[in-house]
Amino acid sequence: MTSIEKYYDLLDKANISNYKISLYELSPEEKRELTEEAKYNSNIKQQLEILKIELSKKTEDVDYIRTAFIHVANGVLNSFEKIEKWGNHYPDLDQGMIIRGYLLGKILSDFKTALKFEGALPSVEIYMSTYKWDYEPLKHLIENLKDELIKSYFETKMQAIEYYEHIRKSVLQITERLRKERII
Length: 184
Prior knowledge:
By secondary structure, this protein is mainly α. It has helices at residues 3-25, 31-55, 63-86, 102-116, 136-151, 157-180; strands spanning 90-91, 128-129. It folds into two domains: 3-55; 60-180, no CATH class.
C-alpha cells in the first residue's frame, strides 16, 4: 500500500468513526461503545497526523503523480476530440451504466488512481452517445487543469493530494450545475 493510499484509507476510517460517534452520542445506553469508538478515533487521527508530516516532506519521485494527472487530462481531452469528430455525438454521461452522471465519477476515479498509486497511468476512455448536453464547461475545466499541471511542479505528496482535492471540488461544482439543470 502506498503512503497516499494509506492516507485515504485512514481518512475513510476517521470519517466512518466520526459518524459512529455521532450515532452513539444520541443513545445514552451506548456509552461504552462511544468510549471505545472515541479511543479508536483518537488513534486514527494520530496516525493521520504522523502520515501528513511524512507526506509533507520533499521527495524526488512525487512529480510522477503530476505527470500521471496530465496523462488523465490528455486521455479525457483526446476522447472528447474523437467524439467531436463523429458529429452529433457527445460524451456519454452514463458510460454504459444505469447511473446518470457516472462519467464525472469515472474521471475523478482516474485522477484518484493516478494519485493513490503514485503515478499510475490509468487507461482513459470515454464512451459516446447521441444524448445532447453541454459538456463545454467540463472540457474547459480539464483543459485548464492540464495547463495548470504543465506549469507546476509537486515537491511533496501532500501537494499532490491537495491538487487532487482541487480537481474533485471543481468536478463536483460541474456535477451540481448539471443536477440543478436536471441533466443528471
